[in-house]
Specification:
The complex is a heterodimer. By secondary structure, chain A is an alpha/beta fold. Chain A has a single domain (about 1-220), classed as Rossmann fold (3-Layer(aba) Sandwich). Chain A contains five helices and eleven strands. The N and C termini of chain A lie close together (about 10 Å). Chain B is an alpha+beta fold. Chain B has a single domain (about 1-80), classed as Phosphoribosylformylglycinamidine synthase subunit PurS (Mth169, Chain: A, 2-Layer Sandwich). A three-stranded antiparallel sheet of chain B has the order 2-1-3, with helices on one face. Classes of the chains: A alpha/beta, B alpha+beta. At the A-B interface, loops of A face α1 of B.
Chain lengths: ~220, ~80
């Protein structure tokens, strides 16, 4: 698959995403945020980092980049979009996914590996997982406290659009293993059609054993099948 | 005409405000027992040109909806005066 990784001023996981995607066998390229051409990629990755320094709100300024208009059009046509960490925040600001990110409940930047339960395996990003599988990926964010009003939250849950949930090593999504205060321990959600996924954990940082695991590579490999 | 707009952006009521809570805790530790609640927001000071106050307000309100506030979690208040 052809995958484009968007580069904003302040992106810092763009090269990691490029590396992990190439490792999984994809044809990778970078897309500069001032471009208006997606160069016929099948999937767009919005990587982690601090686009525009997180000024005003995380993702708020990046959302008005020229490339994002094209990403929105691509998503509406059914094209694949994966937003990781800051990329998830951009998707929320752009309205491609519902909800918003508040500061972590602890007010601390949290950087550590966490366990996640895979709740939805019918998205193109998660099809190689078994439903309910517990995986381990790193998180690294200060603004990852997912919030949505009750109606939106009920709809996400009712439609099976919560894709990843923070949990303990046995898959129990309890308060003790919620690293940021997210409602319902939500770590990742998709849109109604399943072609847009936003997630706070970093799959690209778990793509080789030397990095501490390969659970993240499964997401990139899922896109191949 | 030049106008000055002051935009106050605050988290909606009922949304967890960890920054407000931390400031509240700090004030309590300093001994301000009379202080019971603090919420933390943003103040944006904007200078603009518009033909009337209503026009200035309309423009700022649109900017709030499009960028300055996130309607999912924030409310905003606008005050406009002559610059």
């Amino acid at each position: 698959m052809k995958i484009g990784v968007v580069v904003f001023p302040g992106s810092n996981c763009d090269r990691d995403c490029f590396f992990a995607g190439a490792l999984a066998g994809h044809e990778m390229r970078f897309l500069w945020h001032q471009e208006r051409d997606l160069h016929n990629v099948d999937c767009v990755i919005l990587p982690g980092g601090f686009s525009y320094g997180d000024y005003l709100r995380a993702g708020a300024i990046a959302r008005f980049s020229p490339i994002i208009e094209e990403v929105i059009a691509h998503a509406r046509r059914g094209g694949l979009v994966l937003g990781i960490c800051n990329g998830f925040q951009v998707l929320l600001e752009a309205g491609l996914l519902p909800g918003a990110m508040l500061p972590n409940k602890s007010l601390k930047f949290v950087s550590k590996p966490v366990h996640l339960r895979v709740e939805n395996t019918s998205t193109p990003f998660t099809r190689l997982f078994d439903r309910g599988t517990v995986i381990r990926l790193p998180i690294a964010h200060g603004l990852g406290n997912f919030y949505a009003d009750k109606d939106t939250l009920d709809r996400l849950e009712g439609e099976g659009r919560v894709v990843f949930r923070y949990c303990d090593r046995n898959g129990n999504p309890d308060e003790a293993h919620n690293p940021n205060g997210s409602l319902n321990n939500i770590a990742g959600i998709c849109n109604e059609e399943g072609n847009v996924l936003g997630m706070m954990p970093h799959p690209e940082r778990a793509s080789e054993e030397i990095l501490g695991g390969t659970d993240g590579l499964v997401i990139f490999r899922s896109l191949l099948s | 005409m030049e106008w000055r707009a002051s935009v106050k952006v605050q988290l909606k009521k009922g949304i967890l405000d960890p920054q407000g809570k931390a400031i509240e805790g700090g004030l309590r530790r300093l001994g301000y027992k009379a202080i019971s609640k603090v919420s933390c927001g943003k103040l944006l000071d904007i200078t603009l040109t518009a033909d009337s106050e209503a026009e200035a307000r309309r423009l700022i309100d649109e900017a709030c909806r499009r960028l300055l506030a996130n309607p999912v979690m924030e409310d905003y208040e606008i005050e406009v005066s002559r610059a």
